[in-house]
Amino acid sequence: RGTAQGSQGDWERSDFLDRLTQSDEPAWGGWELRDLIREVQAGQRSRGEVERRLELDCGPAWLHLIATRLQGEFQGVLVTRLDITALKRAELSLLEQRVFLNGILESSRHLGIAAIDADHRITLLNPAAETIFGIRREEALGRPIEAFHQATGVPSARVEAGLKAAMAQGDYSFETATLRGLPGHLFEIRLTEVRGPDRQELG
Predict the structure, then answer these.
(1) Which of 136, 102, 142, 139 is nearest to 120 (CA)?
(2) Cα(49)–Cα(36) distance, integer angstroms
(3) Is-contact 191 166, C-beta < 8 A?
């Protein structure tokens, strides 16, 4: 894949570094790979990697090129060229989803959202939750959920019972009007478990 020109025979009869020098060929790493190979040949490093993006008619593609110094009977540099397009597209898709989700969390004015990890420590608190619970994000992150709720006015017994029920049933909810951020307002607190594809508890 790429724009490298010439037949296999042409490449076999030519000096690879010379071809890279003559043209900054992105499909073969270009001048960046050329310089990397020279460093490996000179013993400045034993291995190096280059990632290049190609603009093709069918869309962008990504290549991962690795130069490794060979020792022993076969001296030289081994160049490995991997197509990582599927991996990069998956990473970009995940990044887009994360940005979209963060946008929802940050812009939710009336929906307070908090998340905990498998150790029951706060890992996320959106702006609405800061207002409702009456605590700043910096003060909440990393704290155990029990200590967090005690500081914000939720009875610890309700939290402990809710966590056990959520892990057993998938979710649990209760009402309270004791939240320190907006006292006198009635809120529904809903706890929902989060598990990975292998059913591992995430939070």
Answers:
(1) 142
(2) 8
(3) yes
- Residue 68: CB atoms within 10 A of its CB come to 16
Q: What is the largest distance, in Å, between two alpha-carbon atoms of the chain? A: 83
SS3 77: strand
Q: Please check whether residue 175 is in contact with residue 189, taking contact to mean a CB–CB distance below 8 angstroms.
A: yes
Which whole-number Å values give the CA distances from 21 to 11, 12, 29, 32, in the listed order?
14, 16, 11, 10
Q: Alpha-carbon distance 58 to 192, whole Å? A: 42
Buried b (16+ CB within 10 A) or exposed e, 44-55: eeeebebebebe
Cβ atoms of 31 and 20 closer than 8 Å: yes
Task: Give exposure, 137-162, as e/b (b: 16+ Cβ within 10 Å).
Answer: eeebeebebeebbeebbbeeebbeeb
Instruction: Tell me the C-alpha distance between 25 and 194, whole Å.
Output: 46
Which residues have CB under 8 Å from 61's CB, separation 6+? 1, 2, 53, 54, 83, 85
| pLDDT tens string 34-60 | 888 888 888 888 888 888 888 888 888
- pTM for the model: 0.49
Pairing mode, strands 114-116 and 122-125? antiparallel
Number of H helices, E strands in the chain: 8, 7
What's the average model confidence in pLDDT over 91-103?
76
Write down the pLDDT at residue 89.
Answer: 84
